[in-house]
Structures are given as structure tokens and as C-alpha cells.
Design goal:
There is one protein chain. The protein is α/β, with parallel strands linked by helices. About 30% of the residues lie in helices and about 20% in strands. The strands form 3 sheets. A 7-stranded mixed sheet has the order 5-4-3-6-7-9-8, with helices on both faces. The protein has a two-stranded antiparallel ribbon with strand order 1-2. A two-stranded antiparallel sheet has the order 10-11. Helix 4 packs parallel to helix 5. The radius of gyration is 17 Å and the shape is globular.
Amino acid sequence: MRDSTDEADGGLCWNASKVLANYLVTTQPGLVGTTVLEFGSGTGALAARLSAAGVRVVCTDCDLQIDYLSRRMQGVAHTTVLPLNWGDAGWETGGGAVLDQGPYSAIIMAELYGLVQAHDVLLATLLQACSAVAARRPASPGKTEPVVVWSIFKNRPFSLNFLGLLHDTGAFEWEMIEEFDRMGMEEDPGDELFLHRLVYIGDPSGGSRQPQTSTETHQGPVEGGVEIGAQSSQAPAELVTLTPVDLAESRPWQDEEG
């Protein structure tokens, strides 16, 4: 299976989202009947598969994508579509509406790390969401349920660097899932898929974290022979607004055939 599929309506579906959906449906029955929050829903492929299995999904994406996503999800049961721009300002604007749809049993993300310019704003949103989701969970005497984030991505330039940023925060523990059905997406050398279960343990910065602007390599732990974050990046000196052109140019790995 190729890493992406061109949809008839002009959208682009990252097929790793189907791999994550298959994994969650077959191994995480506890998600059925609960609500999960998805970042960067894109074509809605991940949400559609989960909703068919009885999981309610709150799908989010940026303002540029939200109309398309809403059209895609029309008639799909157990789904809600809401705009959510990444970054502190985006969370301040859209986070309240997202939280009102909870409580959430998990946060899910598929193929979001390929554009290095988006790493800082995605990280800021993830930290904000995890903290807020944890604060809003019903209290259980003697028991605290962690906020779990399921993440999948294909090994691309700078994708592993995002895990280096996560490691630097000290806010997450993670487990690399080794055994899962890759659905034919690792047919060629270098086509590794990375599936992680991240557990939010609290942000040591107390929400005062500054955007990462260093051009140095982020160092992280080694998983599967790959050092997480061991890729030099040219992070921007300031956060930028991402346009459709930016997103299109961020896909040099996409096959030109078909």
C-alpha cells in the first residue's frame, strides 16, 4: 500500500491513518463507547473507521481545511467536526469548544510530523490539550487515569525530530509499539512506520514553555536502532502561518506517479 491515496474529491489521505485505525479497533476495545480527540483529521479516514467500530471521534483541523473535512464527515455517525488551529492562540480560540465535547479517553494523531515548521505549534497544542483533558476528567477515588496519546507516522525527514521535542519537554512517557499490522506499507527499505503510545505525565514547565528555535540537533532516546530526534533541523526563528502552498511543498516524498 502506498503511503498516500489521492481521493476522488481532490483530498490526500495518508494511509498510516488506516493502519492506526486498524490497530486501535483490533487491540483497544476499551475505546468503544468513549470519545477520542483527533488532531489534523485531514480526510477523516481515521475517524470514519473508528466511528464504524463505535468510537465517537471529535475531528479537528485548521481553518483552511475545516470546510473540506466537514463535507467529508457528513453522514458519518459518532463524529463531530470542529476547527482548531495549532499554537497557543489557536487553542485559546478553539480549545474551549473542543473541551466541551469531552471527556476524552484518548488523543489520536496520524502523519502530523512531516512539516518541521509546524512542530512548535503542534507541540504547544498537544501540551495544552493534554493538560486541559487531564484537568477535566471525572475524579475517581484513589485512581488517576492518564491521558494517552496514540501517534503514528512514517519515517520522513524531520518526523523523528518531533519526538525529540516531546522528549525534551519531560511531559511524556512513551511506549514504541513493535507488533502491529503494517498493511503493506513497509515494502521498501526506509519505509518504517512508527507507532507510539504516549502517556502525559504533566508539563514540568507549568505551561511557560518557550517555542523551540534552536537549529541544533535535538537528542533523544534510541528506539529500534534509531535515535529519536537525531536529525538536524532548520527551525524557523519565528512561527509562521502555513498556507496550502506550504503544505503542498512539504510533500517531496509523495510519489509523482498516478
